[in-house]
Write a structure and sequence with these properties.
Length: 153
């Protein structure tokens, strides 16, 4: 009987691992790390920190959340070269990675402006296409960042 339960547990773990490793999955590793980072940031508010469960969560996961924030790629890892375009949602900058010296286009969008606009669905569709398309004619999304008030990719 224990063998059956163990095989079922292994099967379930394999499914979870596949979803975590699949960049198209809503539960991919970047999404999970984003969730931990966002939850930690949202809980780290004076009014919310007073709740006992929130305080316990912050005490338990503060170091882990800090490691996520410090170890993940961030906009500070790039040096700004120049603005190469402006649009309805934000601007596109030419940037260079400080370590590899590789040059990228970085799109920066204001979250508040996106929320206000009724056509913000186009923003999400564009991001999805850039993240998943495999075409020489479509710019590929390499990285994306979430900061408090800005979406960047």
């Amino acid at each position: 009987m224990d063998l059956i339960h163990d095989e079922d547990r292994k099967r379930r773990l394999r499914i979870l691992e596949e979803r975590i490793q699949d960049p198209r999955s809503k539960g991919n590793i970047d999404s999970l790390l984003d969730t931990v980072q966002a939850l930690h940031t949202d809980c780290d508010h004076p009014a919310i920190k007073k709740l006992k469960n929130v305080e316990v969560y912050l005490n338990r996961y503060d170091d882990f959340a800090s490691d996520i924030i410090n170890l993940r790629m961030k906009t500070d890892d790039f040096e700004h070269i120049k603005v190469i375009g402006r649009g309805a949602f934000g601007k596109v900058q030419l940037v260079r990675h400080k370590y590899t010296r590789q040059v990228y286009a970085m799109k920066r969008l204001c979250k508040a402006d996106l929320i206000k606009r009724s056509d913000s669905a186009f923003f999400w569709e564009e991001r999805h296409i850039m993240a998943h398309a495999k075409s020489e004619w479509i710019v590929q999304l390499h990285l994306r960042f979430k900061m408090r008030n800005i979406y960047t990719w």
